[in-house]
Design goal:
With about 675 residues, the chain is of the alpha+beta class. It has 15 helices and 36 strands.
Length: about 675
């Protein structure tokens, strides 16, 4: 069932760039400890086909120059090609079965309750990083090579080096900032708030479709909270939800005054939060404002978070968006940097900033609280912050390694794909003004690279990489509904598919062989592992083979396309306990539905994807390779994989490949 990852061939122009690069540069062929500084720019979701098209059109001049000096190639990714999985392989050099991250979520085999795959609250209430394996940068720190890791995903909470009594041993020159996986103050990936004195109905494509906000009430939706306001003389005092702590949930509050202006025009809203007053007109964003939740437990210090507001409208109704309450980088409630003081130092230098792992508010767009233009503006604010952070880090980089992560392209590709693709079932003519939004974000990445090249000058070398590429997400597949139809999952009598979920008592476990939970994961209902398991361990392999063959034979009744292109067995260390037994490599255009990922069944096995989340990469790994661009020449005639990058970075500094890493250096010998 397993297949070899195939490399996509770049265009003739891109191939010429690669050939020119191989002839143009010879530096780095004999790496040494005293090598010049190295910038590794991680651009999440950059796709080789789109990059090649824009290179051919002459719209990526800085990428063109970088590739001409060194090389450009597709970069094979992990299975599954999910960001926390892929970046964990980049960090450790291990296959997913080795580092143990095989989906965005994992489940407790006894209770089946899902939890985030990368971190979990442990003893004493402290967050623990669940990724196994040693980060490649530990081997640099051992050799006194300075390292800065800026917001690499799957690294929350950020780890101190595992070598010696750091920072007393080695150079002590290690800094890390947490990225994807860092929660907001509520402990979620991001929960926005929408304040309104008007109506709100959850859109048809959401989990809460059709639910209505009651006047003066609250409606909780996926990734957000809708709050109904009753203005009295234009005033209200809304609450800001906070974390659960001793004594219950913490809450802040702000004063809101709405002046709709004479005749409803030229109005404004004033926000008073903690004594800081901000006046907004429709279409304006506030600066970062601090929310004070009172004293921390057993401490005299204050518990604070930060938010930004966006005033969408005053007429016919007030519409006020508030970002998720981010951890305050000046005094974070959870660790977001190593050493602890680095986050406050960055805040002191450049002001408050998003600490939430993925700052683009995709949930607010899905909830139709923000429209496409507003979503792009909000993501642009976060990207502007990231540009300033990169400038500061490059100013400090005179030796060693800087890894710097950029989120924006991934999130815009997820949400704007349908706007650029008239063949997508979710396309609408009204999206036409945003049809080039993804291309413009690629051009923004080129500008970012250009600024980095100008700031870095001739001081060192640059590598740009992405963890995966992108594809249309046109049709949703509900694995659990399919398993039920094939007789592998039983539902109790009297319960319809739309009411069933593996997380409640609606499943007949005595008649269940397998179930799905997560975006690519299938689990056997294994006796001795699952609490109500029925599959004998000795028969698990044949059941997986049988299910895999049926998935590979599955065709979409709408047009006859294959739904699943490859299936992958999970063997070895990670096959025990919380890891899935089978990974499903969907064909290009298909993905697990959101309901299926959370263990729910739906009426239809296959359905059109009409959500704004219209581009994706959680498919078969070979369909969505990432990108590798280098100022140094690449090994000629080679195919490259994400697992090669940690080995290559170590090789650049003259450090041999650690024992458990399986990658090969990308540099010619």
């Amino acid at each position: 069932m397993d297949g070899r990852i195939r490399r996509r061939s770049p265009s003739a122009r891109a191939a010429a760039l690669l050939a020119a690069g191989l002839l143009a540069a010879s530096v780095g062929c004999a790496p040494r400890k005293a090598a010049p500084p190295l910038l590794v720019l991680g651009i999440d979701g950059m796709d080789p086909e789109i990059l090649t098209r824009l290179l051919d059109a002459g719209r990526m001049p800085h990428f063109e120059a970088l590739a001409a000096s060194g090389g450009f190639a597709p970069l094979a990714t992990t299975m599954p090609p999910q960001s926390p999985v892929a970046w964990s392989t980049f960090i450790t050099g291990l296959e997913p079965a080795g580092h143990g991250i095989l989906d965005f979520i994992r489940r407790d085999p006894l209770t089946l309750q899902p939890y985030l795959s990368t971190s979990r609250k442990g003893r004493g209430g402290r967050m623990e990083l669940l990724r196994r394996g040693r980060p490649f940068w530990d081997f640099l720190i051992e050799r006194d090579i300075p390292v800065t890791i800026f917001k690499v995903p799957a690294n929350f909470p950020p780890e101190a080096p595992r070598s010696g009594p750091w920072p007393l041993a080695g150079c002590g020159c290690y800094r890390a900032f947490a990225g994807m996986g860092t929660p907001d103050m509520l402990g979620t990936y991001g929960t926005f708030t929408w304040y309104t004195d008007g109506p709100y109905t959850a859109p048809a494509h959401t989990e809460e479709a059709g639910q209505v906000l009651t006047p003066g009430g609250e409606l909780e939706i996926a990734g957000g909270r809708i709050v109904g306001l009753e203005l009295r003389d234009g005033r209200a005092a809304p609450e800001i939800h906070g974390p659960n702590s001793e004594g219950g949930e913490k809450r802040g509050r702000f004063e809101l005054f709405v002046d709709r202006g004479p005749g409803g025009g030229e109005g404004a809203a004033e926000i008073d939060l903690g004594g800081r007053r901000t006046v907004l007109r429709p279409g304006e964003w506030s600066p970062w404002l601090r929310v004070d939740y009172g004293r921390k437990p057993l401490s005299l210090a204050r518990l604070t978070g930060i938010v930004r507001f966006y005033l969408k409208s005053l007429e016919p109704h007030l519409g006020l968006y508030m970002t998720p309450v981010n951890l305050d980088p000046g005094d974070p409630a959870m660790p977001v940097s190593v050493p602890d003081g680095e986050a406050p130092r960055l805040e002191a230098a450049l002001g408050p900033y998003y600490t939430q792992g993925m700052p683009a508010d995709t949930k607010a767009l899905e909830a139709e609280v923000l429209d496409y233009g507003e979503f792009l503006a909000q993501d642009g604010l976060a990207l502007d912050e990231r540009r300033e952070h990169l400038r500061r880090e490059l100013d400090r980089l005179d030796s060693g390694l800087l890894f710097f992560y950029v989120h924006s392209l991934d999130q815009v590709s997820h949400m704007l794909w349908r706007a650029a693709d008239p063949a997508h079932p979710g396309y609408r003519d009204e999206f036409a003004p945003h049809r080039r939004a993804i291309d413009r974000r690629y051009e923004a990445m080129d500008e970012l690279l250009g600024a980095a090249m100008a700031a870095f000058g001739e001081r060192g070398e640059i590598v740009v990489l992405s963890d995966h590429g992108f594809a249309p997400y046109e049709r949703s597949f509900n694995l659990n509904t399919w398993l039920m139809g094939e007789g592998y999952l039983g539902v109790r009598e009297g319960i319809g598919a739309v009411e069933a979920s593996i997380l409640d008592d609606s499943i007949a476990w005595e008649r269940t062989v397998a179930y799905g939970l997560g975006l690519n994961a299938l689990y056997l209902n294994l006796r001795g592992r699952e609490e109500r398991g029925v599959v004998e361990a000795g028969k698990g392999g044949s059941k997986l083979e049988e299910i895999g063959e049926k998935l590979l034979a599955l065709r979409d009744p709408a047009d006859g396309r294959p739904v699943v292109e490859r299936v992958y067995r999970v063997d070895g260390e990670a096959a025990e306990g919380p890891a899935p037994d089978l990974l499903i490599g969907y064909a290009r255009g298909y993905r697990a539905s959101g309901a299926a990922a959370l263990g729910r069944l739906e009426a239809d096995v296959l359905s059109d994807n009409l959500s704004p989340w219209s581009g994706d990469h959680c498919m078969a790994a070979h369909t969505v390779p990432g990108v590798l661009v280098s100022s140094l020449p690449l090994r000629p005639g080679a195919e490259f994989h994400l697992r090669d990058l940690p080995v290559s970075i170590l090789d650049y500094y003259g450090v041999g490949r650690p024992e458990r890493m399986t990658g090969r250096s990308i540099w010619p010998k």
